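Contributing: when you submit paired examples, paste them exactly as shown. First protein:
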Amino acid sequence: MNKVKKRYKSLIQISGGYRMSTIIFSEGKHDLEFLKLLHKYNRGSDYDTFNAQLATESQSTRIRQHQVGDQIDYLYKSEGGKSEVIKQFRTIATEIDDLNLILLVDFDGNGKNPFETSLQAKLDEQYRGDLRLEYNETSENPHFVFFSVDVIIQNTNSGSFDLIAFKQSLEDITHIQDSNQRENWRRKIKYYLTNCPSVVSDVKETIGFNA
């Protein structure tokens, strides 16, 4: 098993075999809190988190904790910005068949193209055109757009991941400002989750809460 696979293959042992944790790369602390609150309202507390900006341990250490029998089905990660989400994805792109991966990003009102272009440019730096992505829009609602993204390596489909994108951003739709205290923006996220159930339902379905 190569280093990339060893680092990111997050498996939980169960009777008769293994199942993969769902891993979500998100942009920042507000997105991480959104995922935590969404999970608590629908699944309880069976999740793990990793904030790259605050962590005192390495990401590989956290992933290993999931590999050695930690019975947690979801790992939510805050990467510290869209560019960091892209960098982290690039490191595991060739191992996508070993992951149940979701990216949660902001389109900031610009649609898919700027994100797609930035991500592909980073992939091309490392894989020199041998790896490309094919985006298949699956649904949208007033606040989100959803894609199933195929990873094509040397013209062979090597797996897929889900992309959930805020059409604007979480901060835009919940009116969170950087100056807000944590309890203030947590209250705004809770209000959004409570008062926009039909919109949030699509996110829950993609993550797997409605299964």
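Second protein:
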Amino acid sequence: MPLMGMGGLLVLRMSNCRRWQTLNDLIQALELLQQKLNLNVIDGEMGFEQPVPLDRFAATVHRKYYQNDQWDTENYVDAYPQGKLYLDLWIPTIDPIFARKSAIQGETVSVNALKYGSQYNSIRFGSVCVRDVSSNIVTSYREKIVQIYVQIAQTLIPMLSPDHVWIAEDDDYAVNLRPKDILARHLKVIYWANYLSPDFVSEATKSLYLKSPVGICRPLADGIWYQLHEQFDTLSSQKIKQIEEEALRYFNRLNIERVQWVFE
């Protein structure tokens, strides 16, 4: 069933990116996002209205990348990484109607990239927009944000080779996959959108996803991209609940505990 909670946080999380070995690997990936999807990186120290020029981007990332000698070597918690990078991406106006109604001309997406030596890393993209089923304008705006997340994920996956990727609504209290779940290949949550690397799933599990009567599944970068529905926020709560229940029944053999899509 749809999750109960405050929600409002739209999240894309990429876990254990195999090709993020050095800071330059991450810089090249973020540069590709800017060039391919027309996203601007904003440096707060330069002023909100001033995106970082591409010729200064690498230097900006090196300046904003912090390293910590006292990092968590066991649980890989967000508060204690070995290295961290916090940036803001500015997405130009994605919905002219929403912009006129709300006076918001674009969307700021926070990027938190965390690295724990060579053992684990994660990149999270997040923006806040609370669901409002009574407002078609808000629904359309959230839908467009999430569809941009899909483009971001599918652009970065071939370049960074993550083990696992998910996109869904989130909040501070949701129990998501932990780093140890990812490293142990313990997949207990299905999100609205999911990427599973070839190292993350067995051939039998991959076949199960590809044959699923629920959702959309297709090969991507030697792994699989599984999405519960093409649309994220423009479906009725009843339709979302129906799809979630069907997915739980079908994937019961994988010991999936819950589905995370939107909050009600």
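If you have annotations for the second protein, write them as plain sentences, like these:
Residues 9-260 form one domain.
The two ends are 9 Å apart (CA to CA).
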